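Section 5.1 Outputs to date
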Amino acid sequence: MDIPQGELADVVKRLRRIEGQIGGIVRMIEDGRDCSAVVTQLAAASKALNKAGFAVVSTGMRHCSTTEDGEKRELDLRELERLFLSLA
C-alpha cells in the first residue's frame, strides 16, 4: 500500500506521542517505579500503537479503494485481511 505521506500526518503525530510515552516508561523502570504503574503505562502505549496501526490500514483502504480519477478499484482482500490480522 503506497499511501501519500500527507494522509498519514495524524498517525505520525500519534507515533511521536507514543515515542515520548515509551521514553517515559523507560525512565519509570530506571527510577524503580511501582510495577503496576509501569504495566499500566505499557498497556496504554500498546493500545495507542494498535490504534496507529489500524489508522494506517484504514487510510490505506480509503486510498487504495479508488483510482486517481475517482473510479472504484478492487481491493486485495487477502492483503487487507493479512494486515488487520497482523495487528491482532
